[in-house]
């Protein structure tokens, strides 16, 4: 140190400035030295310890006051003092002995459960408030959860107001005192009830938990529809349909109001004083869960015009409700001319136009005649605006004559005539015509040349075409393949849809011969809301064989009928004035193979354990809006088992209808709303020439990796060969969309190894039970494979099976075994040798077959 920093005081000794202690440590050793005649002398070392005196802060933990404890519970208190350096601190604890009033603790109790009554359905688009009132000591915390009304959604998730299927207006929670008790009230306000769902409110404190499940069933209530037109004409057929939700209503009845004594307001209680009772045909629609009472008037007359009332009764309250529908009837009017056609004189090669201006009810059908002979639209002659306008381009001498327009409807016919005179001759040489003909001949020549070149470049093998047609066929043992199109019926009155009701959109997929297009289908009047559908159709220039194949697909879909897990037929356009169209359900999430690959990063190898028992519903309430966005939710093992179960159920249905799929794979499974999978057949719309899953064998391209040995070698297709394909599909599902037999060359050697008993290893996410099902499906002898009904039962049991619950991050999860314990199985993508297969079957397959 500098000599001038430490000074000597005769009374106090050596003085050290305080800033030295702030800069350096609080513990020092000091000494001084001096030199006398070049000899250095040192003093003794002075030990200096700096001591502070300031107290800055004193804290007692836990800070919450008062601290509530249950009897027998421990308590740890921490007293922390913040002081200046080296300040001496002594802690003294004091217990004043003040009396504390203890309160008994009670678990939460939700009051709405005590007064639970059957829940009335909620009207679509209405504003609804769900209330949860709970008591408990200490005070409870209320949270809201939800899950879709679907067969596979078994677990509830926390309600997110930002991404709710039913828009959430608010969630408010408050406390109130009722009869001296503090109650916690939570109100969930739904802005618009659009979709059926299951809501759950949970009340929780440190003592326990209580839950209330609310069945939020959304319905349109009941209403009246009139078909086929809202403005019927005299003598028309009129159908009145009263649609009432089965969950709410019963006892549907039709009445007609007395036109002489119509009350100003419709009162159901006094309805019978002014009405006469009518009949009707009662039916039940399973898809919409509605009762339909249909009143048919086959030949409506003017005196039938008036008010018709449908009365229904509430199942729970017994209260009656009614709706009124007014039917206007237009009288028929015979055709009459507003302006008669006039005589015209034109020059050769000029244009001619004549109008047939008539009116009537209904609109008359118009026909044109020339010199009393029917006139049709041919080259140069055009009939437009429903035959109201006749146009002739480049008039010739022979176009002169008497033209007559005839207009007819149910009330009769009228006609009017006009004479056309042509001036000039056709003998002159027309240079324009010669040039046009020459140009046309040259164009035709080049078109033929291009067509020949195209056919030589892409010559399609007939055997390949046959393979690319249909996958799903009827069992050849029931109906020979060549007779299936003629054998199966087509009822146009039930399935035919007018082409003008379709609005075609983007192409969803295409093959060498056909394509699938997204479309919107509208109501009869083109004003009612549209539904999204998928339309299968042929490409331009399709052959008669391809047309017959698509017609066969249509008839087979009709024969199969409707099922939740099959892409269902909605209608068809078969009339000759346009292309053949097959209209089926639209599945927004595409095929299962692509979906699984896209969800690999969001896969969870566990599922949350349910706290309450659950059921697998055998029905789904579909809605215009999707119940959830599957792209935003994680994929779980439970989802994979659910997909497998649904495919097995769909194949069970196909087998019961004597149908064989022949190409069962993840690419032919579509995913729709509510996590529902549907079996489909792309048929003509798949390009088997570019798809690597289809390998050439002989003269055909076949999906060899999915085919059973008897199908590969003997061309035998049965329901049991579909079971083999189902095993490969299971491998695809539990490998999250991987291609089967990865790294293996698909050739004759592969087919031989398959026949000799070589099988794939288990995929990474498959439990021993799942892999046992795969091996059972891959039995070499078809009779030893399980049937689809057996697979439905096995997978249904797996879906509901509870595994070991494990705590992780304070949440309860259920882990499913997803890897095999056999150390020799290190790569699920390689092929399992036949001797390893036998060892694994002996270990695992027996338990599965007992089911």
Automatic annotation (TrEMBL):
Q: Where are the transmembrane segments?
A: 433-457
Q: Which GO terms describe its molecular function?
A: ATP binding; growth factor binding; metal ion binding; transmembrane receptor protein tyrosine kinase activity
Q: Give the matching PROSITE patterns.
A: IG_LIKE (PS50835), PROTEIN_KINASE_ATP (PS00107), PROTEIN_KINASE_DOM (PS50011), PROTEIN_KINASE_TYR (PS00109), RECEPTOR_TYR_KIN_III (PS00240)
SUPFAM superfamilies given for it?
Immunoglobulin (SSF48726), Protein kinase-like (PK-like) (SSF56112)
Q: Which InterPro entries match?
A: Ig-like_dom (IPR007110), Ig-like_dom_sf (IPR036179), Ig-like_fold (IPR013783), Ig_I-set (IPR013098), Ig_sub (IPR003599), Ig_sub2 (IPR003598), Ig_V-set (IPR013106), Kinase-like_dom_sf (IPR011009)
Indicate yes or no for the key word Membrane. Answer: yes
**Can you give the residue ranges of the Ig-like domain?**
108-219, 238-314, 335-421
Protein kinase domain mapped to chain residues: 502-816
Q: Which residues does the Swiss-Prot or TrEMBL record annotate as the active site? A: 663
Where, in this chain's numbering, is Mg(2+) bound? 668, 681
- Catalysed reactions, semicolon-separated: L-tyrosyl-[protein] + ATP = O-phospho-L-tyrosyl-[protein] + ADP + H(+)
Residues reported to bind ATP? 509-516, 536, 667
Kindly state which keywords UniProt assigns to this record, in alphabetical order: Angiogenesis, ATP-binding, Cell membrane, Cytoplasm, Disulfide bond, Glycoprotein, Immunoglobulin domain, Kinase, Magnesium, Membrane, Metal-binding, Nucleotide-binding, Nucleus, Phosphoprotein, Receptor, Repeat, Signal, Transferase, Transmembrane, Transmembrane helix, Tyrosine-protein kinase
What biological processes does GO assign it?
A: angiogenesis; positive regulation of cell migration; regulation of MAPK cascade; vascular endothelial growth factor receptor signaling pathway
**Topology in membrane:** Single-pass type I membrane protein
Q: What is its EC number?
A: 2.7.10.1
Q: What family does the entry list?
A: Belongs to the protein kinase superfamily. Tyr protein kinase family. CSF-1/PDGF receptor subfamily.
The name under which this protein is listed is Vascular endothelial growth factor receptor 3
Which gene is transcribed and translated to give this protein? Answer: LOC107706735
């Amino acid at each position: 140190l500098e000599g001038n920093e430490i000074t000597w005081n005769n009374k106090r000794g050596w003085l050290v400035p305080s800033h030295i202690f702030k800069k350096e440590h609080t513990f020092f050793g000091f000494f001084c030295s001096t030199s006398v005649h070049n000899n250095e002398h040192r003093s003794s070392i002075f030990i200096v310890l700096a001591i502070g005196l300031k107290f800055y802060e004193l804290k007692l933990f836990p800070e919450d006051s008062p601290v509530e404890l249950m009897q027998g519970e421990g308590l740890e208190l921490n007293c922390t003092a913040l002081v200046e350096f080296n300040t001496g601190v002594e802690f003294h604890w004091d217990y004043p002995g003040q009396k504390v009033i203890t309160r008994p603790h009670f678990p939460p109790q939700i009051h709405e459960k005590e007064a639970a009554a059957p829940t009335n359905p909620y009207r679509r688009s209405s504003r609804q408030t769900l209330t949860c009132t709970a008591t408990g000591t200490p005070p409870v915390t209320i949270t809201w959860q939800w899950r879709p009304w679907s067969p596979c959604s078994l677990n509830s998730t926390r309600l997110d107001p930002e991404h709710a299927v039913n828009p959430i207006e608010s969630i408010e929670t408050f406390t109130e005192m009722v009869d001296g008790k503090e109650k916690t009230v939570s109100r969930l306000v739904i802005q618009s009830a659009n979709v059926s769902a299951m809501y759950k409110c949970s009340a929780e404190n440190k003592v326990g938990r209580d839950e209330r499940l609310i069945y939020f069933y959304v319905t349109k209530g009941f209403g009246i529809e009139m078909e086929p037109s809202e403005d019927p004409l005299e003598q028309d057929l009129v159908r009145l349909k009263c649609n009432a939700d089965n969950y709410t209503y019963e006892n549907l009845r039709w009445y007609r109001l007395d036109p002489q004594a119509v009350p100003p307001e419709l009162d159901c209680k006094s309805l019978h004083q002014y009405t006469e009772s009518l009949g009707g045909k009662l039916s039940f629609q399973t898809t919409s869960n509605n009762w339909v009472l249909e009143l048919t008037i086959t030949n409506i007359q003017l005196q039938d015009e008036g008010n018709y009332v449908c009365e229904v009764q509430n199942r729970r309250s017994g209260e009656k409700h009614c709706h009124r529908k007014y039917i206007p009837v237009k009288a028929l009017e015979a055709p009459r001319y507003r302006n008669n056609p006039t005589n015209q004189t034109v020059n050769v090669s000029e244009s001619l136009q004549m109008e047939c201006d008539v009116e009537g009810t209904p609109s008359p059908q118009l026909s044109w005649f020339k010199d009393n002979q029917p006139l049709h639209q041919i080259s140069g002659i055009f009939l437009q605006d429903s035959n109201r306008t006749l146009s002739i381009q480049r008039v010739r001498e022979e176009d002169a004559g008497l033209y007559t327009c005839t207009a007819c409807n149910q009330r009769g016919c009228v006609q009017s005539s006009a004479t056309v005179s042509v001036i000039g001759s056709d003998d002159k040489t027309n240079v324009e015509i010669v040039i046009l003909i020459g140009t046309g001949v040259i164009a035709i020549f080049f078109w033929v040349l291009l067509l020949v070149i195209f056919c030589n470049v892409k010559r399609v093998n007939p055997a390949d075409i046959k393979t690319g047609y249909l996958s799903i066929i009827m069992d050849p043992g029931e109906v020979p393949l060549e007779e299936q199109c003629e054998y199966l019926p087509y009822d146009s009155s039930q399935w035919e849809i007018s082409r003008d009701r379709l609005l075609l959109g983007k192409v969803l997929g295409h093959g060498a011969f056909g394509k699938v297009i997204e479309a919107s289908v509208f109501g009869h009047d083109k004003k009612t809301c549209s539904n999204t559908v998928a339309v299968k159709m042929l490409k331009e220039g399709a052959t008669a064989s391809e047309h017959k194949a698509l017609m066969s697909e249509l008839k087979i879909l009709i024969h199969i009928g409707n099922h939740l897990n099959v892409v269902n037929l909605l209608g068809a356009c078969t009339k000759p004035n346009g292309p053949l169209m097959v209209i089926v359900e639209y599945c927004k999430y595409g095929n299962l193979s692509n979906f699984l690959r896209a969800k690999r990063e969001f896969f969870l190898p566990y599922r949350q354990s349910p706290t309450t028992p659950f059921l697998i519903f055998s029905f789904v309430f579909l809605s215009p809006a999707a119940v959830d966005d599957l792209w935003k939710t994680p994929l779980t093992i439970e989802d994979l088992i659910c997909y497998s179960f649904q495919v097995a159920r769909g194949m069970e249905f196909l087998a019961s209808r004597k149908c064989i799929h022949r190409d069962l794979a993840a690419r032919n499974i579509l995913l729709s709303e509510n996590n529902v999978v549907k079996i489909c057949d792309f048929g003509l719309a798949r390009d088997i020439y570019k798809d690597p899953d289809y390998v050439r064998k002989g003269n055909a391209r076949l999906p060899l990796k999915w085919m059973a040995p008897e199908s590969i070698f003997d061309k035998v297709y049965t329901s049991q060969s579909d079971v083999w394909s189902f095993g490969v599909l299971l491998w695809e599902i539990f490998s999250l969309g991987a291609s089967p037999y990865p790294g293996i060359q698909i050739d004759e050697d592969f087919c031989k190894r398959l026949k000799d008993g070589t099988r794939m290893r288990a995929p990474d996410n498959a439990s021993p039970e799942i892999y046992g099902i795969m091996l059972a499906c891959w039995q070499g002898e078809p009779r030893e494979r399980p049937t689809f009904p057996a697979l439905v039962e096995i997978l249904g049991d797996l879906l509901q099976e509870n595994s070991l619950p494990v705590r992780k991050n304070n949440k309860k999860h259920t882990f499913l075994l997803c890897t095999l314990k056999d150390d020799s199985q290190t790569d699920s993508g390689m092929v399992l040798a036949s001797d390893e297969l036998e060892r694994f079957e002996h270990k695992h397959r027996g338990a599965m077959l007992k089911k």
